[in-house]
Each structure stands twice: as structure tokens, then as C-alpha cells.
Amino acid sequence: MHLSRLVKQAQKGNKEALLQLIIVEQDAYYRLAYSYMRNEHDAMDAMADMIVTLYEKLEQLQKGEAFYSWSKTILVKRCKTILRNKERFIPLEDERESSHDALTDDNPYRNTESEMNMQVLLSHLSVRQREAIELRYVHDLPYQTIADMTDAPLGTIKSRISQGIHKLKSMMGGDRYDNDRGEITGAQTELEYRTGTIRT
DNA sequence: AGCCGCATTCCGCTATCGAC
DNA sequence: GTCGATAGCGGAATGCGGCT
């Protein structure tokens, strides 16, 4: 994989190169867009808008290796803009209702009972905590990228995730895996197993 | 090629602060 | 008092260059 080379080709106007870059991560893009839009049509719309933006602004990207975090930041901001325009951006007090939407049949995450349980658990967090945790453990994005996406300081993202995990732990009735040495938390482990992002 | 040490980056955690 | 935001610390992971 020569990411930087592909990005440079795309920056020179090579549409094939840009297409290749997008295809490699198309599933990740879709899942990310879906997690915000909650339906296939809007997720596809957001992805289409992202591709247009990428094509227009690719010259501004300085580090080729940062292409995917940069493009995902664009996608998330586009999703939020669409939601705002539709006046559907979910305010804090409505988050529980939205959690039920997340369990509809076309949700790509709703595969098993335990995944549904995790969605229910996540629905008890604040919107911002849930967003940060989903971006980290569902979409496997680094803290800095999440901070960029959400326009929040890095420390704030760390805090949201840490406190969100803490809440999940208490909701799960204590920590099955935690111990005195401070190893990986039960809730965190649960999330990582759900999403396949557990590191070996 | 393999090992070692150093530097950098990333992450988890927590103390502190301010708003309510 | 509670909650969320912020900053900073320490440990783990990773990258990289030098040496054998």
C-alpha cells in the first residue's frame, strides 16, 4: 500500500487514484456516516458530498499519510451539516429516543443481542461521550482525529472516553476483568470485542 | 539480520476548575 | 454537590538509527 503515492497522484488530478483511495475504506466511510445519519440513504448522500469535497480540497492536504483521518473528518462534518440542515441534529434530551432508532432493522451494527445491549448501554451516555466512544472503539479512530472531527480539545476527548467507559463499567454491574493492576476494563473489552477492534 | 537504546507518539487516568 | 471541560502526568507502544 503506497498511500502517499496514491494521494500525490490524486492531487495531480488522477481521479482513478482518488477512487482507489476511497474504495479501500468505503466500508469504514459507510459505517461512520451511518452512525450519524441512522439511515442508508442519508449515509450515501453524506459520502457523495464527502467525495466532492475531497476532490475539491485534496490539494490542501499536506501529509499524504493523513488522508484517511482528514477525509473522515470531512465526512463527519458533512454529516453534522446535513443533520443541522434537516433540523434533526439530536439534542441531548432526545438521546434515548435516538437510541431506539439505532436498533432498527437497517442498522449495520444490529447483528446480535449483545450488540443491541451495547447500543442500549451507550444510549445512557451523553451524546458527546457516546460520540467519542463510538468514534474510538467502533470506528477505531485515534484521539487526535476524534478531536479534529468534533472540534474539541484533545484532553476533552480523552476525558469523554474515559468517563464514558467508567459509566459503562458501573452500568454493567462492576468490572468483570478489572483488577488492581489497572488492566483493560470490562466495558472497553466488551466494546472492542463487539467491534472487532481488540488489539493483540 | 538482529539487537539495543533513545525519542516520539499515543493512550488512560486523574486533579483541578468553572458552570449550574 | 454534581457534572463536564481542561491540562498534564506516566506508562505502553512504536519508530528509528547505530552497532555488532
Compact summary:
66% of the residues lie in helices and 0% in strands. With 200 residues, it is an all-alpha fold.
Description of the molecule:
The chain contains 11 helices and no strands. The protein has 2 domains: 89 residues, Orthogonal Bundle (Rna Polymerase Sigma Factor, Chain: A); 110 residues, Arc Repressor Mutant, subunit A (Orthogonal Bundle), CATH 1.10.10. The relative contact order is 0.09. The two termini are 22 Å apart. Helix 9 packs across helix 10. The chain has 200 residues and is mainly alpha-helical. Helix content is 66%, strand content 0%. The radius of gyration is 18 Å and the shape is globular. The C terminus is likely disordered. The protein binds a DNA duplex (20 and 20 nucleotides) through helix 10. One of its GO terms (molecular function) is sigma factor activity. Keywords: Sigma factor, Transcription, Transcription regulation. It comes from Paenibacillus antarcticus. InterPro entries: RNA_pol_sigma-70-like, RNA_pol_sigma-70_dom, RNA_pol_sigma70_r2, RNA_pol_sigma70_r4_t2, RNA_pol_sigma_r2, RNA_pol_sigma_r3/r4-like, WH-like_DNA-bd_sf. It holds the Pfam family Sigma70_r2.
